[in-house]
Structures are given as structure tokens and as C-alpha cells.
Amino acid sequence: MAGTGDLSARQHHLDTSKIPRGYNVETGRCLQSTNPVNPDLTLEQVGKSKHLTAPRSATNVERLARILRDRKLAQFGDSLLNFSYSLALTRTTKQPVGVKVKDKLLADAAGKTGLRKYLPRRVDVGDVANSLEALVGEAWLLEKVTLEEIVACLVPDEIDQSKGFIKLAQLTLERLGLEIA
Which of 50, 92, 157, 164 gives a 20 to 30 Å CA spacing to 24? Predict the structure, then answer.
């Protein structure tokens, strides 16, 4: 904005050249800090810092974020998880069962697994659930997990239903080579 007053447009902006930048794996977001940071830090040292961390691989973080936001994978993963969970329940109860897995249950598992931090800030429970569905769909389509492995993870736990989905998320992350800290 040029114009009124004695200050130039350049003086209106904060000089950010001295603010250290980094990447926080826990939140999946870039950091800006006014705390002094040693400019000679190596990548290995940065990973050991309490406040400033680096992802294991930026390409893996980007790949994971892309998978988690893929709507078509989420639609496929939704059908796959509903079928797998219904099959697990059918085998457990020895009665034919057809159920839809609740978004709240999937979102809870995604949060406990650490997937939530790789999604944009303002997403609802359905979007968080979709991220887990997309992850499982991608792993199955790439033949990294089998239907039997998915069903085995989802054998119902009467106390905490999300345990099986947490186990499944961890398995798919491992098989896709996207282990998160």
C-alpha cells in the first residue's frame, strides 16, 4: 500500500529474515519461532531438539498427506472397511451381520494413530475418518495388505472398539513405508 504517511510499504512489514523456520512432525506444520537458533545446526541435530524437529522424509510426509486427502480413495476405503468389519463381526458372532463403521470410531483411531496431524487444521470428524479409509484403501489397492489381514485386525474388542482400527492404521502405515513418529 503506497500512500499516506511517512512510512514506506517496506517498513510496514515485519522483517522475517531472522526468524528460524523448521518443521514440526507432531503437528505436521511449519514452525516460525523468535527463539534464537544456532544457524550451524545439522539435520541430525535438528531431529534431536525438543522444539524443532524435521520429518524423516519430506516426500513421505507429502505422500501421506496426499493419500489422506484423496476423496476417491476414501470412498473405496469406506466400502472396504464396512465390508471387512462386517465380515469380522460375522465370523465372531457366527451370524450374518452388515454394519457401517461410525465416523467417530474411525476418527478416534486416526487421532490415536497420529494421522490427524497430517490433515488441515479445520476438518470435521467425517474428514478425519475419511483419511483412515483412504489409507486402508491405498494399502489394499497396492496389495500391501490383504483382506484377511484387515479382517484379522478388526476382530471386535468389547471394551475399546477403536483398538482394531488403530492396529490396522499402524499396519498400513508400516506396509506403505510411511511410519510416523
Answer: 164
